[in-house]
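Structure ticket #2291
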Amino acid sequence: MSQLTSVSVLPSEADAALAKETSRVLGSHLGDDEQMRLRILDGSSSETVRLPAAAVRLLVRILEEMARGNAVTVIPVHAELTTQEAADTLNISRPSLIQLLEDGKIDYRRVGTHRRVRFDALMRYKRQADAARRAVLAELAAYDQELGI
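Resolution: structure written out below.
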């Protein structure tokens, strides 16, 4: 299993501007399931590479986020995170995450005395929690309308 080892860095204003333009250009040339050929110019030499459509879509998404000034981290779905990395991903405290793990709300495994959380299990919990939050919000909105608020 792979560990999360990358660090996110906020893009500079120049990087954000370049990302915006590049995402626009790449996005306009991307077909549904077509490979993309890119020519890399390096001084006096050039080389053409082929990229799968899925990789180009991911690259466009990364560039769009950078254009908004957001830091981006790519994490393999099967990556295992430490409890601190998992807590940071959910934007909660580490003790709160430990409680979720102990309550069985997020699957994890132990490596010696340490807990490891698979990224896909963490995202599954996040999707479920977000869906539950949206359902409660919709219920509250309906109740407000019923009361005429």
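Closing remark: The mean pLDDT is 90.
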